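Repro case for the chain-ordering regression, as requested:
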Amino acid sequence: MNITLEQAETAINAAKTKAKEINTLMNIAVVDAGANLIAFVHMDEAWLGSIDIAQRKAKTARYFNMNTGEIGKLSQPGGSLYNIEHSNGGLITFPGGVCIEDASGNIIGAIGVSGSTVENDHLVAQSGAESVK
Amino acid sequence: MNITLEQAETAINAAKTKAKEINTLMNIAVVDAGANLIAFVHMDEAWLGSIDIAQRKAKTARYFNMNTGEIGKLSQPGGSLYNIEHSNGGLITFPGGVCIEDASGNIIGAIGVSGSTVENDHLVAQSGAESVK
Amino acid sequence: MNITLEQAETAINAAKTKAKEINTLMNIAVVDAGANLIAFVHMDEAWLGSIDIAQRKAKTARYFNMNTGEIGKLSQPGGSLYNIEHSNGGLITFPGGVCIEDASGNIIGAIGVSGSTVENDHLVAQSGAESVK
Amino acid sequence: MNITLEQAETAINAAKTKAKEINTLMNIAVVDAGANLIAFVHMDEAWLGSIDIAQRKAKTARYFNMNTGEIGKLSQPGGSLYNIEHSNGGLITFPGGVCIEDASGNIIGAIGVSGSTVENDHLVAQSGAESVK
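-- result from build under test --
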């Protein structure tokens, strides 16, 4: 099972709506089950450096089938996955990357959001992911 | 002058409509005046390798303010720009990248399309670019 | 709004003057609003490794519209942006990168300085940025 | 012997003057004897893609102590240096890169120019290089 562009656009629109609701400017990326980029938007005046980070968060979430923030807990100094960020051309392991599941609970892709605090990034990503179920 | 997300989405939607009209499956990317990614879509079942190519075409068009195919004519063996593709982390110089101008003729970004023949790629990119003027 | 070469040269000259005043040898880079390199100088005998760092500091400041040192506070182990340096092909998040604003307060680019202590790097960058306002 | 920043700035100013004289918009880079970037300017509205190319031309000229166009003659299909552009992280081998010599004929650096035809690029680079002797 793989995410469709229609589902990716649903996720992006839901995320964009949530971003506006909480007065943030976000970069939002959706990848498919193969971790390939399916859709992306950069809201006007959002951080340019977050164009790359949003995409890396989406990929990182799908690479390990978990929220990026969960990986970040394990990649700290002394942690079991210390400096895992060096793999795969550069991972981002702080919150804002969330897997997208279909109604049956299959992971069909992931969404990555960057542009505000990590709490806001995660909240917006969650809104996007939930809109697809 | 820089492209807005609304303009980028107009371009992508026009390109998507044209892609469907000619029965192709495209990857479509829009960059701003600074060559940063603003919006992207991958149509279902389009080539995965073209996700990257569409983005490089958009950047290449903006980098030199001309259609990518024009650069490709000059980068052939014996041509004045032979192997220019090695610059900027990798250019794509065959057709499918087109600058986006505003109503006053200012270049505000570029669109890159990849997924079919270069003729079709260019046609779809052109449709996207023209929708913004 | 985007920085001009004349403004970039003003910033670099002001930074160079400050660098000499405090007896340091600096690398100084200015990027535009799109994070593209506009001007650069390497003072004689300044560190060679700082040629790259100065450019990354300028880009990092513009990528997130804040001083690089602010990002570095958040990217420490346990911090909310831990290992953000892996994004965008490699960020530099210690002090020495400062946004450049025009007289109206619009961010039109950024300056990055590297070659001494981070305190000196920041001081020199600040001098450059302020000369443009 | 190594180029100084003062000499590099002399070369860049001479090149800039020549660029204006022939109505072109150039990116101009100077590297030292170690092929490290010493000074760079991007003239307003010059091609963004040439920021990278100007630097690669300067490096390529110094890497092999010859004009970039000379290398390009040898890197064609069937040539003795076919596809040498793949080395050193990406070379540019069409005209516009010229070595800088001091009054005694020692190579102390190189200048790379990009933004117009390769003939104009070479002409402007030559003007810069000659201003240092």
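Ordering looks correct now. The radius of gyration of chain A is 13 Å.
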